[in-house]
Amino acid sequence: MQPIAIFSIVDASFRRSRGLVTIATNAAERLRPLGEADPGREVLPVRILQVGAGNFLRGFADWMVQRANDAGVLRHGIAVMKATPRPELVTGRLTEQAGMFHVVLDGVRDGRPFSETTLVTAVQSVVDAYREWDLCRDLMREETLSLVISNTTDAGIVYTPDDLSAAPPASFPAKMTALLHERWSHFAGDPRRGLSFLPCELIEDNGATLRSLVVRHAREAALAPQFVDWVTEHCRFYDTIVDRIVPGLPEPEAAELRASLGFDDRLIVRGEHYADWAIAGGPAIRDEFPLDRAGLPVRFMPDIRPYRERKVRILNGTHTAMAAVGPLLGCHTVRDAVQHPAVGAYLHHLLQDEVLPSLPSEDPEELRQYTTAILDRFRNPALHHLLADIRLNALAKWRTRNLPVVLDAWSQGRRADLGIFAFACLLTSYAGAFGEMPVRDDETLVAGLRSGFDATHPDRWIADFIASLDWPELSDTATAARLTAETGAHVRALLANEPAHALQTLLAGHEAKSP
Ligand SMILES: NC(=O)c1ccc[n+]([C@@H]2O[C@H](COP(=O)([O-])OP(=O)(O)OC[C@H]3O[C@@H](n4cnc5c(N)ncnc54)[C@H](O)[C@@H]3O)[C@@H](O)[C@H]2O)c1
Ligand SMILES: O=P(O)(O)OC[C@@H](O)[C@@H](O)[C@H](O)[C@H](O)CO
């Protein structure tokens, strides 16, 4: 077995070592503070496997681990695994930068601009599942390893038939199954070597779903029943819900930040100061990963489902709606949308009249304050959160974040015109009704929308599109018919007038009906 190699700034040569790391020889130069001495970086035991190294994990989980390490609460090194086959700059840069990068948190505190910068040095190694699968397997033989943190987007925790003997298996759950099997074999089923999974994907029951997929892959591959028992009894899969807005950082702004920091850091991530990590677990995970004891915003609780639902419906659902409606009225960023007179009013009514009534709460005032705080976060002057980025895969997001609000409203005898208006905006703009806008969504669905589009007879087009959706929520004929009819009405209004006019008319009618 190859030993795990680590980045160390103390090792100024950053030579390629025998183990997990490919290290650029000039990494120390690239990250050294201009004119300052080598900070003398500590070598940490690798306790965390991190799957993915996107903006969010860097600005949230890595930031938390770093803060807890700095506070002396943890001494955790992170091994990052690149788990997608496509070429990607981030992990390459991470290797070049010896695993280090800056997290800049910007916002307003006590009415004044507030900014805080953290240099993350916790990442000790980077492995590529597609080029270095053997090294990923070696990592599983490390005694110190105890946690797996992932963010593979909403598309990562899914079942597809897979080959566990491939190098690597294709899907994230199948990769985890193969790696866990390696660990189980190496440690001869030792119960103490089970791992704790903290998935950050925003899907419902993320931990439980990942566990069920690992067990399914193990059974389908006819792995030993003792392995399945070890997974279910000695590995722990926690449901978690994460919250921190971490938009991508476009190059002109990134260059400014690099200049102001004095580091040639190509992986700077910028986000808001607010953060919340709710983990469905008790004393065991809290003792294993006591981030809260370092003053970090992490909560351990028996059931996170209510928190997840309100966060996804209020924050992410509002993001999805504004990303559908805002660009049609000239808004480019989240702040543009909340500050736009008509779009802002639309979002206010969407939240007050459709989203909040869909969320049962013992403390409505607390829920209102939570909502107000989210709208304030959307106004953060330091962040330029592009609606175009949030529109990525917006059809699936509307389905998981907005459609449940619509269906709850209907089942409670209320209307949900505003949520459906967002769907109509999405469909018409994807079809090209308002000129060419960049579309990054399910290619089959978008092709269907475009080929069938008929501005003069939109009803048939909408009916065909909704009938083509393989969404179990619409399997009931009456529900599908109602969504078709109501979306069709909004589409006709959008096509007959400018979107701004359609929105004004919708709001005027809505306000007239509101109590
Ligand atoms: N950025 C935020 O503000 C924020 C906040 C909370 C949650 N999230 C969630 O994070 C995700 C987006 O992350 P980001 O903003 O860091 O984007 P990003 O594009 O920077 O990173 C996405 C990461 O996911 C990895 N990935 C994608 N598909 C994968 C797969 N099938 N298997 C393994 N890895 C896979 C990519 O390699 C990359 O590392 C979304 O699902 C979002 O809901 C983002
Ligand atoms: O990242 P997405 O594309 O799934 O969703 C866009 C935003 O709604 C999301 O990233 C939020 O900023 C985040 O969930 C805040 O915690």
Automatic annotation (TrEMBL):
Pfam families: Mannitol_dh, Mannitol_dh_C. Keywords: NAD, Oxidoreductase. It comes from the Bacteria. GO terms for biological process: mannitol catabolic process. The keyword NAD applies. InterPro entries: 6-PGluconate_DH-like_C_sf (IPR008927), 6PGD_dom2 (IPR013328), Mannitol_DH_C (IPR013118), Mannitol_DH_N (IPR013131), NAD(P)-bd_dom_sf (IPR036291). One of its GO terms (molecular function) is mannitol-1-phosphate 5-dehydrogenase activity. Residues 303-426 form the Mannitol dehydrogenase C-terminal domain. It catalyses: D-mannitol 1-phosphate + NAD(+) = beta-D-fructose 6-phosphate + NADH + H(+). Residues 47-281 form the Mannitol dehydrogenase N-terminal domain. The keyword NAD applies. GO terms for cellular component: cytosol. PANTHER family: ALTRONATE OXIDOREDUCTASE-RELATED, MANNITOL-1-PHOSPHATE 5-DEHYDROGENASE. This is Altronate oxidoreductase. It comes from Paractinoplanes tereljensis.
